[in-house]
Amino acid sequence: AFDFDGTLTTGGSGLPFLVAVSDRRTVLDAIAALWPRLLHGALAGGSVADRTKEDLFERVLAGVSLDHLSSVSAQFAPAHLARHLRDDVRSRFDWHRRRGDRVAIVSASPECYVQEVGVELGADAVIATRLEVALNGSLTGRYDGENCRGEEKLRRLRQAEMAVTEGE
Questions:
Q1: What is the C-alpha separation between 160 and 152, in angstroms, rounded?
Q2: How many CB atoms lie within 10 A of CB 102?
Q3: What is the pLDDT, as a whole number, of residue 160?
């Protein structure tokens, strides 16, 4: 299992993705409105950081159509990889694939574009933060489930492993 931001790639992808989906002004306005809570979340971590990240996503992504999100994700993923993929980690990723190991990408970043990365790199599975879609086909900005970090990463990785094992 490989983490995405800071492991497979350099730096983070969340804010650049939000800008790609909306625009720089919308993201900056959301950050400005939330800055005290973002700072507190960064210092406190855990569930405080999760809630604040979700609030940022809600301010930026609420009302965005699933079609637009899919289109941006398909463009963002390869462009982000081209600029930020770590060659040393990619080599290790490919080494595992050549050995026949099951390889997963596990990330707190949104699944919509991490899934695209997984396809491009040949991952067997992608486990990432899912975004909630309303009945009208637009995003709510909230998570569909938990933010995929920490214990949630491990829980979902074990769940995926059990599903694969039961399917054999």
A1: 12
A2: 13
A3: 83
Contacts of 70-79 with C-beta under 8 Å, sequence gap 24+, read 70/112, 72/17, 72/20, 72/21, 72/113, 73/110, 73/112, 73/113, 73/115, 73/116, 74/116, 75/20, 76/16, 76/17, 76/20, 76/113, 76/116, 77/113, 77/114, 77/116, 77/117, 77/120, 78/116, 78/120
Give the separation between CA 168 and CA 151, rounded to whole angstroms.
26
**Beta carbons of 79 and 16 less than 8 angstroms apart:** no
How far is it, in rounded angstroms, from Cα 44 to Cα 24?
26
Q: What angle do CA 70, 75, 81 make, to 5 degrees?
A: 120
Distance in angstroms (rounded) separating the CA atoms of residues 106 and 156: 9
Q: 164 pLDDT band (50/70/90 cuts)? A: low
| Contact predicate 21/139, CB 8 Å | no
Task: Answer whether 129's CB lies under 8 Å from 107's CB.
Answer: yes
% pLDDT > 90, the chain: 89
Instruction: Please say whether the beta carbons of 73 and 112 come within 8 A.
Output: yes
Examine the pLDDT at 166 and tell me if it is beyond 90. Answer: no
